[in-house]
Request: fold
Amino acid sequence: MSESFCPTCEDYRETRVETRDETYTVRGKPITVHVEVEVCPVCAESVFDEERDAAVMRHVYDAYRQQEGLLSAEDIKAIRQGYKLSQRSLAALLGMSQATINRYENGEVQDRAHDEAIRACRDPSHVRDLLARRGDLLTDRQRRQVESAIADAGSGSRRRRGVIIRMPEEMTELTGYRVFDYDRFAAVALFFCERLGRVSRTVISKLFFYADFLTFKTSTVSLTGAAYRRLDYGPAPADYGAWLSQMEADGLLVCEEVVHSDECTGFYYGPGPAAGGLAVGFTPHEREVLEHVARTFRGWTATAISRYSHREPAWLNTADREVISYAKAKDLSLSLPE
Reply:
């Protein structure tokens, strides 16, 4: 129990927390939700608590969005991050203000016109068109990041909780003779986040590459079944930005967004609240590979590991944006210690 001021009794009371159904009106529509409220034990009226009431209103707005078929705050954030866009950059492409995108991601209900504009960005071809028309509003680096995210798409697609995700669904030398396994992919991300602490999006994409290709080099089968493309910043998993956003949506990863001095945005990942529930068993050999990759690149910056990956024959001998064959793993610079 805590002491709060009850406006009905006009006195401070030792309040209690109750769970009850309450109805709120959002844009003229009644929304009933099951919420926790702080209650005065004398008059039984609810008492204002800023933090608790803010959480209640987020719940109410989420329920309204679901009822009206609008994107959730998490959906909006996932779409934006899938293209490596900052709030400012997405706002510029859509002709909105950064404050508008920020409010929507923090719980405020968007209007339907804005919802449709943001929802359309699930289609990479639509974002490509926005770049052609409004890309001059972005910095060169921001534009390259978005172009890289658009190009980072494989041949097959599916949706997980509203995020478009692409990965070749085959078992050939392009996937290391393993069908892509989302749980294994997520478990690899968690392994590196737990071993190395906060890991940037660029660094983790290269760690995936070295773990998969070193596993194939030493056992003729990949670790996750992911396909990799030759991108400007080095080899990276196909559509890896969307996969990372999906892991965040699933609670496996948490993402910290950092705006650097040049106004470009960096994304850094760590284990999420659901990380402990992911049960994936790696073989002793696979674990040896993961440990070796983690030890090798501990402390490396995004620039350093990108430059290092540019020296790999797998990257040098693959056409721009094309999928890298695991057959090239035989020339990988990294080897397991004898």
Notes: The mean pLDDT is 84. The chain has three domains: 2-68, 73-146, 158-331.
